[in-house]
Design brief:
single chain, 237 residues, mainly beta, Glutamine Phosphoribosylpyrophosphate, subunit 1, domain 1, 6-stranded antiparallel β-sheet, 5-stranded antiparallel β-sheet
């Protein structure tokens, strides 16, 4: 697979939906993740990211305008020991709780499927990063309907051991805008990871569609020490 520019991938469509990037900095010192949300409806756009413990959760920017919270209010990021979980829904809690009971990432996600938001049947995308004593590996998952048929759930897991410096993988919910929205296809896209946390955060935010972007979370984790830095950008201020 040819490595492509993350900036170009982000700007190539007006509506990739929600997206997860996981990789490693060019100097090999930091594990990197980014998670963004976008929205086309007022309910989806009425959100911000707020810190919760070592992770984050979504919150209504204007509580008086919150309609259905079921698929838009959740904890996208949680930390379980040396593992960082990043997802686009409440499956974050499922992964956290079942891995805490010694089940695997894949086993936890076997209990879940795509979102019940017909006709889109939005895929559930998830990632997990394992950083311990100078070693780093990660995995990503997508659970999606069978080409829009909700009677079947297609499950894909991608695992990356000893990821290469300066590279990452990018998975998102939709291939682009549409009605219904077409689900992501194929394996996560191989993308470049460049710059320090501030330049990387700004690059991601600036290349998301101005009308549809809502919030962005970025974390750099020191692979040797496990210490991390976080950036959050919310369009609603």
């Amino acid at each position: 697979m040819e490595k492509v520019s993350l900036a170009k991938e982000l700007s190539a469509t007006t509506y990739p939906g929600r997206g997860i990037v996981i990789g490693k900095t060019a100097d090999g010192k930091h594990a990197v993740t980014a998670y963004f949300i976008m929205g086309r409806s007022e309910n989806s756009r009425n959100r911000v990211f707020v810190t919760e413990g070592e992770g984050i959760r979504t919150q209504a920017y204007d509580p008086s305008k919150l309609e259905d919270p079921s698929l838009i209010i959740y904890a996208p990021v949680r930390v379980l020991g040396n593992k960082t979980i990043v997802t686009n829904g409440d499956q974050t809690d499922t992964i956290y709780e079942l891995m805490d009971r010694q089940q695997t990432f894949e086993q936890a996600l076997r209990t879940r499927e795509f979102e019940p938001d017909a006709p889109n049947y939005t895929p559930r995308i998830s990632g997990i990063m394992h950083v311990e004593n100078g070693s780093y590996n990660y995995a990503m998952s997508i659970l999606k309907s069978n080409n829009g048929d909700p009677s079947s759930c297609n499950r894909y897991t991608f695992a990356y051991e000893n990821p290469k410096a300066g590279e990452g993988r990018f998975i998102h919910t939709y291939m682009g805008d549409g009605n219904p929205l077409p689900s992501f296809e194929g394996e996560p896209t191989l993308v470049d990871i460049e710059g320090d946390i501030d330049s990387f955060t700004n690059m991601v935010w600036e290349n998301l569609n101005e009308d549809n972007k809502v919030s962005l979370f970025v974390r750099y984790i020191d692979i040797e020490t496990g210490k991390y830095e976080t950036r959050i950008i919310n369009k609603n201020k």
